[in-house]
Model the fold of this input.
Amino acid sequence: MIKIITEKEYGSGHWFNVLVGACIYVVMRKANKCLPLTSVCNCVGCDSYELGRMVYRVIDHLDLRLPKFDIVGLFDRVIKEWVGCRSNISKDKVGRMVKQGIFLLQCMIKWYVTTGWWPVPVVAVIVFVCELNDVEVSLEDLAIQLNVAVGTCKLRYKEILKRLVDVARVHLPWGNAIYVKNIMKNAPIVIQYMEMKSMCKPAKQIKTLEEVTEFNQNEDLERLNVSPECLSTIYLKYLDEYFNVKTSIERIDNKKREWTSKSDFYVNTTDFWCGDSELSKKLFLDKILEKDVGLNAMPPSFVNGCLKTQRRKEKIDAAKKQIEKIRLPSMDANESGDLCVRLPVCSLKRKRQDTDYWEDFVIETLLLHQVKEEEIEKGYYNTLLDLHVSNSGTL
Done:
């Protein structure tokens, strides 16, 4: 494979070594072997961008299609080689930690935490699992082991905690008192709930009493062929059962309020893990997405993008109000094009010492130059300034 791009083109120096590393990486990936790109970079002596471009060139030249990166397989290998080799940890405990880690890792895949990111740092779930089982590990040591940035591993680790907090706040009676700082105290019962939830079959939608009583009587009676006396008996029996269930729900709600009032209430037990869920084994993506673990989350990048767009809409509305406030009542519509602040365009692209003021100023300038709001919402300010302000001849 190395001969696909001749040594005559690259010689025997740096780029030839990058080519060799790219070929090794492609061969390993093609064989479904877990080999992080950063590990090859350290051996070859190049950065990930150089090696990545060479990998794409090799793939394009050979017209190959590599399988997706096996993040679950990498986790399994790292935890067994890095944690399982310690003499003070039993094999049963290592096996338990592997299942817990695979479960959480596949939950993160379902929650799109791995979408759009470098996959390797997500293995920071090892640190969480070790902390859950009272095994001391260092996030910095894990980053060195994986040849990734420590800061990136910390971000992925924090995202794990945030997702578990989201599950706890929805399903635990005292969930409003749970934050990232104290999630580890409640993690056993949160994971226990998620595991049991994933093993449940999808429940059929249960209609309320009001929905049941408001059915189309003529259509249902003709289809069922039930006498009015029998139907009345069935209805009274159902009504009695409904109120019994309603009383039980009210009793549970009262207990929830009692639990919520106890701020120090949490489950602290080592018997929370069952290990029977299918998510504890490696699954295909479609099977992972079918499982219900108590939380359906959108990709973080998509959520952040929506929040930024909404914030820009608010800034645009505020800028429009500011412009209308400054605009003179007697001003003619033809003079509106001269309203922009007469500053050099280059000053708009200076280093942003104050992002908010800079952004407000740019939005007002773009609105005064008749730029569509939909384009401003996308946030490509410098491009819009070049197209509409620099080329307008107004300085």
About this structure: Residues 228-260 form the longest helix (33 residues). Residues 61 and 135 are 47 Å apart (CA to CA). The mean pLDDT is 76. The radius of gyration is 30 Å.
